[in-house]
Amino acid sequence: MLALLNSQLINFYFHVLFTDNRDTFPIMKSGNIEQLPIYIANATTQHELAHKANQLVELYAAQNKIKNGFLELVMSELKLKKMSAKVENWYQWNWEYFSDELSKSKTKIPLKMVNDWKDFFQSEKTAMNALMVQIKRIENEIDNSIFTLYNINDTEQQIVKNFLPVAH
Asked: By the number of CB atoms within 10 A of the CB, which of 5, 30, 56, 71 ranks highest?
């Protein structure tokens, strides 16, 4: 059920059917959930989707551990008092941009520690990127399984995929 509710198809269906013209996700009410077309898959498909959903839960937990561990270290070791959104999303940037953002918040890395911090940043960013690739792969596998389950053809799949930015 978790895989289905987080699929692009159900996200698309939910937005089209229950839109309230908000920029964010429409309000989910129990009555809305009851109207969703829930197809009961065979046991094998259910097991496969449940396994993939569990993998995603584990990968997201690992991703949060790396992200938050890095930020906690930055906050404590560099005495960063206030974290900007750009610093918070450190894994999206290269080292130069990240260190410039630290400078803007008046946080200086001691010169003799810059290389260590740069190496640590790169290592953690590489780990984050690897997790993001795995997450995207599994999300795509789930979406493809759901499309198959609901007999959604290629044209319909493109409509769903192009309707919303990736919601995962």
From this structure: 56
